[in-house]
Design brief:
Mean pLDDT: 96
Number of strands: 11
Radius of gyration: 13 Å
Largest sheet: 7 strands, mixed
Shape: globular
């Protein structure tokens, strides 16, 4: 069983930055594609960013492109989401997710393509 634990959320003013982290248990993290999703109150969960197992492929939602950066450190079993130039509309609970089909060079951007999820971390951007 893979466990994912997000951290780094909080309250920030518009224009500010936050870095989210997601620590993943297990010895095969380096073979998984990882993704970040978010869910605002009253809305459906939406894709934010994804990164392939070796970091060679990254893909972003249009709404965050140029502002957010996904990265990973396979030695630390951790995936990150650096969020800059934050906007009030970025306010949501952010979830990391793992796709455990090993060593696939695909950008997965649908929630149903991920089989393990963290509990989420709240990000609130004030105007």
């Amino acid at each position: 069983q893979v466990q994912l634990v997000e951290s780094g959320g909080g309250l920030v003013q518009a224009g500010g930055s936050l870095r989210l982290s997601c620590a993943v248990s297990g010895r095969t993290f380096s073979s998984y594609n990882m993704g970040w999703f978010r869910q605002a109150s009253g809305k459906e969960r939406e894709f934010v960013a994804t990164i392939s197992w070796n970091g060679g492929i990254t893909y972003y939602a249009d709404s965050v492109k140029g502002r957010f950066t996904i990265s990973r450190d396979n030695a630390k079993n951790t995936v990150y989401l650096q969020m800059n130039s934050l906007k009030p509309e970025d306010t949501a609970v952010y979830y990391c997710a793992a796709n455990r089909r090993r060593y696939t060079n695909v950008a997965y951007d649908r929630a149903n393509e991920y089989d393990s999820w963290g509990q989420g971390t709240q990000v609130t951007v004030s105007s």
